[in-house]
Amino acid sequence: MSTEVQSKTEVEISIQNLNFFYDTFQAVKNINLDVPRNQVTAFIGPSGCGKSTVLRSINRMNELIPGTRTEGNINFRGVDIYDDHVDPVEVRRHIGMVFQKPNPFPKSIYDNIAWGAKINGFTGDMDELVETSLQQAALWNEVKDKLKQNALRLSGGQQQRLCIARAVAIKPHIILMDEPASALDPISTTKIEDLINELKKNYTIIIVTHNMQQAARVSDQTAFFLVDEARSGYLVEYGKTDEIFFNPKNKETEDYISGRFG
Ligand code: ADP
Ligand code: MG
User: Fold this and answer.
1) Nearest-atom index, ligand 1, CA of 231
2) Model pTM?
3) Quick one: which ligand is closest to 51's CA?
4) CA distance linking residue 195 with residue 165, whole number of Å
5) Spacing, Cα 116 to ligand 1 middle (Å)
């Protein structure tokens, strides 16, 4: 199993011996994986192999689900985010999340950005924060004349970019995205992919996708997961996206990739 990241970039997240349980069911088993800073890392694999579970463990979202248990360490810039002294709310401030289904608040476009920022103690120029966040999410030009309009009136693709703007406004270091384009039309999907490419200049991005072509297009690193006989998800192979797709070391990876492309 390859868990080495060959490039010299710094490690942003180091997952060490991660095991995760929903009650007695072990959903993921012994995950070890280093995520490099300011790159895009994709999680791929069949449905149920634990991609979302691993993703949610990175900002401690899983512990909001009753009856779950996490074992192992996740280091973020040298801090074990599962340490007793670490506040999960603080973790989520540094590690934001965007979900499959766009979930804007039923508030104005402006307030969608301003609200979270305010709660997180932002006291600067709010108009400026709203504008720069929307610009970073490639949405500003489409909404600048209707900031007071209810966000739920935007198209699905615009709503998803608004959710990205809302995540960006908190000034996180990492943005986790769980199939962020799978509910969107092809044009909106392209916009999200272009946006991910822009965002990685300033953020570390981890994206779950069931779309192989998307993983090949947007990511620098790819992690391929499968399930074992006990239905526990495990990491089969991890490395540079080009190598995973064109020169996989592992037979299972090759079968999966060629099955999806062939
Ligand atoms: P993926 O995102 O790769 O489709 P998930 O992380 O959602 O996989 O799920 C991994 C495994 O954990 C699956 O077997 C799934 O049924 C199970 N699972 C996911 N969420 C829950 C939950 N809230 N309660 C119990 N089991 C869950
Ligand atoms: Mg999932």
Assistant:
1) 14
2) 0.94
3) 1
4) 11
5) 28
